Amino acid sequence: xxxxxxxxxxxxxxxxxxxxxxxxxxxxxxxxxKDASMDDAKSKIGFNGGLFMNAPIAENxxxxxxxxxxxxxxxxTTTNSYTTGTSSVVEKTTGSTNLDYIxxxxxxxxxxxxxxxLEAGPEFGLLMSGKVKGDRTVATTTxxxxxxxxxxxxxxxxDNLNTFNFGVGLGAGYYFTPNLGLTARYVAGLTDIAKxxxxxxxxxxxxxxxxxxxxxFK
Length: 218
Hints:
The protein contains one helix and ten strands. It has an eight-stranded antiparallel β-barrel with strand order 1-3-4-5-6-8-9-10. By secondary structure, it is mainly β.
């Protein structure tokens, strides 16, 4: 038993010594999976940045938990149609959906060489802000008469969205020096961003490609 505890202590001590900390930052190219109300959906450019810790767990394998601020969302034209009284209304909003998260990716990395690695793992996200910004055109038809109005909009949609986001990431990285490296990752969302999804409508999920730089403190 003493040998077991001693071996565990040595292993933990080696892990603590071997682990490294660092910072990372880069660009997001994000999108949302399309539902029936979205027309002409496009990707949106955003930012990601934060801290990470890297620790070996076996020969050629390591684990890298991160704590990052990351901007998701997309650009799209969204159309909503409804009837009020004897009038039919069509609202068309063209703009961007801006979703800001604090994310906790936990990447398991295979170190193919001392410089190059492949990675995969889950990402857990906490929604901090959700807004739609753009231009809204409202066309109201009553009988044979249609009136149209256009206005700039900035709508807070956080209360309509799920606070928790979950996805799976796949990526790779290359360190040019022992400290500085280039990173790339794709994260596919698995959870619906909407809190109360209408029955029969499509789930909308986050998707993002990330590229950036990482710096290890050694």
